[in-house]
Structure formats: structure tokens, C-alpha cells
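DM from R.C. (forwarded with permission)

"hey, sorry to bug you on a friday — could you get me a structure for this? deadline for the figure draft is monday and I only need the backbone to look sensible"
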Amino acid sequence: MKSYNFQKLLMKYVVIFLLIFGYNHDQGLAAQNKKQGLMQQAEYTKKYNFTVDWFTDNIPTWEKVLHQFKGEPNIDYLEIGVLEGRSLIWTLDNILTHPTSKATCIDTFYEDKVKQRFRVNLKASGFSEKVTVITGSSQFELKYLPIESFEIIYIDCSHECG
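My reply, with the result:
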């Protein structure tokens, strides 16, 4: 288990907070980077089969918030609510670039076609070996994970129970 000093622990939870709440209150930044975001989106989607995009406009924010983790060894990333894999794959491609960094994702994959699309996208990314995929509700699956071992946790999931 990794040891944390107070500053690292605080930074960890600040990153989690910023990612959860978008850190996108600065609409000026979003507008300024919209053209760049659209260019990134066009380039980004060539290789994958994404049907929705709630992420691309956040790329400038993620770059700013997560830059300190880029290329660092042994970064463990948890994403709750992965859907088709757009943010996960971007993170693997741009932040978790060190060979020892890895990701875990949890999703209910509410339809088989969504899970299949995610699997196809993950395979196309070339990062399958760096990702642990857990199918199920985070309400139940999180208790089996060592949450303190993750440097970055991104929560972007449905809050419906059914």
C-alpha cells in the first residue's frame, strides 16, 4: 500500500473534487478553447465508435488539472461510469502515459450494445492490458476496491437505481 503525506492526500481529493464538479465554471476558457476542442474531437473520433460526447469540451480543463500526473509512474486511475470509454481512453492516451500507470473502471453497461461498443473502443485504443473492467453498480463494487490506492478518481455515472 502506498503511503501518503498530508499534501499528497489533500491534492488527491482536490483532483477528485475538481473532476466531479467539472472545474469548468470558467466559461471563458471553454469558449476560448471551443475551436481547439472541436479539432481535437474530429481527430479523436477517427479511431473509435463513440455515439455521444459529453467529454471533449472538458479536455482543456482536464489537461490543466491533471498535468502533474502526465507520464508519472504507478498512477492508479479509477473511473466510475465509463459508458463508451471516451474519457477513459483520453486519460490513458494523454495522462497515464507511463507503462506502469493503470486504470480501473466500473459501469453497469445498461445495455449489451454499450458494453460491446466500450470493448471495441478499448481494444482499438491499444490499452486493454492497462485496464481492469468491472461490470456492476459502483454502490456494490467499490467496497471491493482499495480506494486509498487511487491517485485520480473520476465519477461520472448515472445515479439511478433500478
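R.C.: lifesaver. Confidence is low (pLDDT under 50) at residues 23-32.
me: no worries. The longest helix spans residues 6-20.
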